[in-house]
TspO/MBR related protein
Amino acid sequence: MNRYVALILFLVLVLGGGLALGGLTVRGGWYAGLAKPSFNPPAWLFGAVWTVLYILIAIAGWRVWQRDRSGWPMKLWWAQMALNFLWTPVFFGAHQIGLAFVIILLMLAAILAFIATAWRLDRVAAWLFVPYAAWVAFASLLNGSIWMLN
């Protein structure tokens, strides 16, 4: 497969999947009615941040896939992606804030493990995950705070 076709497929999977999940999950009155911590960002920021992060995630996955399709970094990439796509319907769809908190902590662990294992294989891919790790750490704090407040 042409390497650039593979990149496009990674972008479609990650960016398309993430945006589709975000668009299909209705936040509605339930989320608006939740008590939130003072550091809760404005709603418009989430879409902008996730769009950039999904592009970085796709590029990192593509780079690792080019070098070792069955190694630990790629397995961890798929694991974090599954957890990422699971979090939205659990939090916003099922309204299971506590379960979503467990999922996001597992996601953060998978992201950090990806960075650690990808470091030897492709440092650029590892670095591309650093903003993602920072955002998910913040999102974990936010998720946990919302759970405690509600």
Summary: The mean pLDDT is 94. The radius of gyration is 16 Å. Residues 43-67 form the longest helix (25 residues).
